[in-house]
Amino acid sequence: MTGRGTAAQGPSLRERHKGETWTAIHEAAADAALEGGLGSATVEAIAERTGISRRTFFNYFPTKEDAILGLREPALAADAVAEFRAGNRSPVGDAVHLMAAAMRAAGLGSMTDSRMRSVLLAVPALTTRLKQHVTEVHQLVEPVISERLAADAVDHSDLPADHQKHVEVVKLLAGTILKHAYATELAAVVAGDPAALDRAVDAFRTVCRTEL
Prior knowledge:
Blueprint lengths: L12 H28 L2 H8 L3 H7 L3 H6 L8 H9 L4 H15 L7 H10 L3 H30 L7 H28 L3 H18 L1
């Protein structure tokens, strides 16, 4: 037996092509914004730079702003949710990993930190869209965090009585830790390195133990 049926398969040719097209549109959009601001980064100009039609552009991005920032529709992968529910870390630690997976899926971190800063400096108005997208990701993970904490409350009578406030605090802490991880180890976090996230969690745990 050759075992070919059990071999892990990589992305199909079609998936690779879609990924390459997405990247080409995003990079062309960011370049156009850097060169001439939001006004020159029209859908038509981006499509012409990429060698695609206007219709194809909208198959990949709903707006030119999302194309410039490299944003995708927020979604939670089943494996990320399963890992969170498994409870291998503290609720906050697992929430950091869940949120990081959601951020990656949503395109956040698709640019290097320096390039993102350059784009936002060139087009400050994009900051509003970026913050909105982060909020959408936080809203996406909130029900999953709430479910986990509600399940934990059954076995832990010492957990806060105000469930929603508990959820908000965990979500806020996870978001703050993830922001620190992006600031200190962007490349590793964007690549999906769990150790980088764990280091950020450990740093906050140490500070909380000594300073709170």
